[in-house]
Write a structure and sequence with these properties.
Blueprint: E1 2-7, H1 11-14, H2 24-36, E2 41-46, E3 61-65, H3 71-83, E4 88-91, H4 93-97, H5 99-103, E5 108-111, H6 118-127, E6 133-135, E7 159-161, E8 164-165, H7 176-180, E9 185-186, H8 189-198, E10 203-206, H9 216-229, E11 234-239, H10 249-258, E12 261-269, H11 273-279, H12 282-285, H13 289-298, E13 302-309, H14 316-329, E14 332-337, H15 345-350, H16 379-393, H17 396-405, H18 413-440
């Protein structure tokens, strides 16, 4: 039996660049498949880099994992594959919260995590008795397989690793708990260390939803072990700000830096208190979030603020406040427009305001997808304000100023990481702007 696993392209509507990270889900599913059934041949396609024609696939089964903005492309691809008599299975975040929608384009849908049901699924696939739905259970993260990155066709700058699943916070815009459940589950630290140390990559993106949230003592132990056993390995992650404001915040940062953490994307989300209340993110940001950002940077770790703009409580001034935040702290930002995702509480709250002429491919943070009560905050206004903010935030003069402001404690790793990230974001945002303007026929 032969299985083709496909990662849909992020650039189908956004015009985004190919990602520098080896797609973690593809390599992980390949390893999981071979652990259960070593005789099955697995073929991997990252369509951000690899060309794959649905009319030329010769496998017995095609599998795809879906994020919401990638669903339309995946559905169209799957329809062509199924028209040739090849069964398709879909899984991932979007398929798990919209299983009936995904089932209309697939022979089978995996809901939730794959580990608990993958043996049954593979057996059914070989016997040609696939069920419409397989519901995975959240299990212990012990003895998980190591991703088979050797099967990837392209070369990547970054590998990836995960140490836990879940997040201690419960933000209204986030679907993590809907997918992973209410608790944070962790991998044994020795297994994580061994995987990183033996990986062919030297640069990594940590795919945890919160790199140090949950159990601070465990995070400190993990980072301490990484500093000893993973020398020459550098990494980037995402994390909260409230953990830094707790008693062991400075110890946490000390060991995060010692583990060669170069950059961290922190959830700032908004400077507007009404918006943070709507997002249920006040506790996660903490009462001293600005000070926490300064402390992270002082430890030699580059900081990127993840900011969500354009909610129904936002004002035009909130876009400007993001630029002021970056300039005052000497940090960069990753600003996106709010796009309530299915499976979240915010989606249910915003459902009646969603524009009905947009498919899921618009839910990528580039487009306004719902009505705003302020007549000034039209769809085009919000989208063009985002473009202008990105352009100003990633002007060369600001990038250079931020690099100069990084403390010597971070030299050279944080400086290299910051330059790489910011130059790539500048390039990507400029391409997105051209794509948007060509599509809309408007000017900023």
């Amino acid at each position: 039996m032969k299985i083709t696993l496909i990662a849909p392209p992020f650039g189908s509507k956004t015009g985004a660049e190919a990602l520098p990270i080896a797609p973690p889900v593809l390599a992980y599913l390949a390893a999981l498949t071979h652990r259960i059934a070593p005789h099955i041949e697995v073929e991997l396609f990252d369509t951000n880099r690899d060309q794959v024609n649905p009319d030329e696939i010769t496998s017995d089964l095609v599998g795809m994992t879906l994020l919401t903005p990638l669903a339309p492309w995946a559905y169209a691809f799957a329809d062509r594959v199924r028209a040739r008599g090849i069964p398709v299975v879909m899984g991932g975040w979007h398929a798990s919260v919209m299983p009936d929608e995904a089932r209309a384009h697939a022979d089978s849908v995996v809901i939730g995590e794959a580990e608990s049901i993958w043996p049954e699924f593979l057996a059914d696939a070989e016997n040609k008795t696939l069920k419409p739905f397989y519901r995975g259970q959240a299990g212990e993260l012990v003895d998980v397989p190591r991703p088979e990155t050797s099967l990837l066709k392209s070369k990547y700058r970054f590998g990836s690793f995960f140490t836990q699943r879940g997040c201690p916070h419960n933000c209204a815009f986030c679907s993590i708990k809907a997918f992973y459940g209410p608790n944070v589950r962790t991998r044994p630290i020795p297994a994580v260390i061994q995987e990183i140390a033996q990986s062919p990559y030297d640069m990594f993106i940590n795919t945890d939803d919160n790199a140090w949230g949950g159990d601070i003592d465990r995070a400190i132990e993990l980072f301490r072990e990484m500093s000893v056993s993973c020398k020459g390995k550098y990494w980037f992650g995402s994390a909260d700000l409230i953990s830094i404001q707790k008693d062991k915040g400075d110890e946490l940062l000390k060991w995060a830096k010692a583990s060669n953490m170069m950059s961290v994307m922190v959830g700032w989300e908004s400077s507007n208190k009404a918006v943070l209340e709507e997002y249920n993110a006040i506790a996660k940001q903490g009462a001293h979030g600005l000070d926490a950002i300064k402390r992270i940077k002082d430890h030699g770790i580059d900081v990127i603020a993840y900011v969500i703009l354009g909610s129904r409580h936002d004002t035009p001034e909130d876009f400007d406040k993001t630029l002021e935040l970056c300039d005052s702290l000497g940090i960069s930002a990753h600003p996106v427009l709010l796009h309530p995702l299915p499976g979240t509480r915010l989606y249910e709250k915003y459902r009646e305001y969603l524009y009905n002429d947009l498919d899921w491919s618009y839910y990528d943070g580039m487009y306004a997808v719902f009505e705003h009560p302020d007549p000034v905050m039209t769809r085009n206004f919000r989208e063009q304000k985002l473009i202008k903010l990105r352009s100003e935030a990633f002007a060369w003069k600001r990038i250079i100023k931020r690099l100069v402001s990084l403390p010597r404690a971070g030299f050279p790793a944080a400086h290299i990481s910051a330059f790489f990230y910011q130059s790539q974001m500048k390039k990507g945002f400029e391409k997105l702007e051209r794509f948007y303007l060509d599509k809309k026929g408007t000017n900023v």
